[in-house]
Design goal:
Elements (H helix, E strand, L loop, with lengths): L1 H15 L3 E3 L1 H11 L1 H19 L7 E8 L9 E11 L3 H67 L5 H35 L9 E3 L12 H11 L1 H23 L4 E11 L4 E9 L10 H43 L3 H19 L5 H36 L13
Parallel strand pairs: 1-4
Antiparallel strand pairs: 2-3, 3-5, 5-6
Length: 415
């Protein structure tokens, strides 16, 4: 048994040497601070702020300077210099443009919150995948360790003539298969660690990351109505749908303001070089004839966009309710799956494997009989790990559907 533990320790040494332990809380803190995609997404708010600031500008005036000469250049007769200042005044356009920019900024904030909701869930699932990969690696390493011991013992037994060469070769082949399975599990563990590094914004030496959490969560489900009602308050995509309706209304008002009559005002002065010299002052107004307003297509388009946005709000509410119910059912069934396993069941299966191994070493059963029992026990443990992982992921998906932050704690759901 001591040799077994020593060999297992040496097998796992390659994955633990130089490991950088990181808890879920530390991991999420680094993710929220350093993730590159998230940093870029946050810039949408700064862009929206700049757009709001830019929407507050007034129409620029126009300054025109011209020179005219009606006769001979040399005589200096009938020459003139004209200076003109003009500006177009609109009514309600600037205010509507500001309101539209404000609505778009609110929408940008809601979209960021929606992005964060999915981002936190995806990052959390990546951490859970890493824990699952670690547990599967440990399980495959145990199997490889056991079969290595059996193969080593069978080598001695074959030399002593206690077993046939075919039995020894069988144990060696089983050892090789177990080693390949362990190497595959090690690669998956390292890849899952690199994925953690990706989410934290730095993949240098990321394969050395070692999550210290557990898949054994204790959260229990509240009634489904609680999650549905909470989702209607916390889901950012509902805010996005409401924001889209606000933008449609603001855009409608802005386009309506653009269709209002404009007023162009012009002030100018002309200095005429003649005999005698004189100056002409002029002022005028211009009102564009909005014949384009006779076309009702733009107005109808704005009205349809508003109606569409309001319909999409109802569709978004229905989608949220359906996602919550599905996530709730998944969590309930994942919890029931986990309850089919127990510590006593796993311990009993392990004792069966040990007894079969002793029986094989004593020559009472064939190696294949021992191998079948061991693989059944290994498969059961992997199913147990998958059940733990499935429950944890289902809980995260319930959090995602409800719109809460991803938090592992003693409470069912932490807002």
């Amino acid at each position: 048994m001591k040799k077994s533990l020593l060999l297992l320790t040496l097998i796992l040494a390659g994955t633990t040497a130089g490991a950088q332990d990181i808890s879920y809380g530390e991991y999420m803190e680094r993710v929220l601070e350093n993730n590159i995609a998230l940093t870029a997404k946050r810039m949408d708010i700064e862009i929206a702020d700049a757009s709001v600031k830019g929407s507050k500008v007034y129409n620029d005036p126009t300054l025109a300077l011209s020179y005219s000469n009606n006769e001979d250049w040399n005589t200096g007769m009938e020459q003139g210099i004209e200076l003109e200042l003009s500006r177009t005044f609109t009514f309600g356009v600037r205010r509507s443009r500001i309101d539209l920019a404000d609505s778009e900024r609110t929408q940008a904030v809601a979209l960021l919150e929606e992005y964060m909701r999915n981002f936190r869930a995806d990052a959390t699932i990546a951490y859970l995948e890493h824990l699952r990969a670690k547990m599967l690696l440990e399980e495959t390493a145990v199997i490889y360790n056991d079969l290595s011991e059996v193969a080593a013992n069978d080598s001695l037994r074959f030399v002593r003539g206690e077993i046939a060469e075919s039995d020894w070769l069988e144990s060696r082949m089983a050892q090789g298969v177990a080693k390949n399975a362990m190497l595959t599990a090690e690669a998956e563990r390292n890849n899952s660690a690199i994925k953690l590094g990706y989410y934290m914004g730095n993949i240098e030496n990321a394969d050395a990351l070692n999550g210290t959490g557990t898949l054994e969560i204790t959260e229990q489900a509240a009634p489904v109505e609680y999650y549905t009602e909470s989702a209607m308050t916390h889901r950012a995509d509902l805010v996005v749908a409401l924001g889209k309706a606000d933008i449609a209304v603001a855009s409608q008002k802005f386009n309506k303001a653009l269709r209002r009559p404009e007023l162009g005002v012009t002030l100018g002065a002309t200095y005429n070089i003649s005999d005698p010299d004189f100056t002409t002052i002029k002022a005028g107004v211009a009102v564009p004839l909005k014949f384009s307003n006779l076309n009702k297509g733009a107005r109808l388009q704005d009205e349809l966009l508003v109606r569409q946005a309001n319909i999409e709000i109802d569709e978004a509410r229905l989608t949220v309710a359906a996602e919550v119910m599905q996530a709730y059912n998944n969590f309930i069934y994942a919890t029931r799956q986990g309850e089919t396993f127990s510590g006593a069941m796993l311990n009993d299966m392990q004792q069966v494997v040990e007894s079969k191994r002793k029986a094989y070493e004593m020559g009472e059963i064939a190696f294949l009989d021992y191998l079948i029992v061991q693989r059944n026990e290994s498969e059961m443990r992997q199913q147990y790990i998958d059940a733990l992982f499935g429950k944890a992921v289902a809980w995260v998906e319930l959090q995602r559907a409800t719109g809460f932050d991803m938090t592992f704690g003693a409470e069912p759901i932490v807002e």
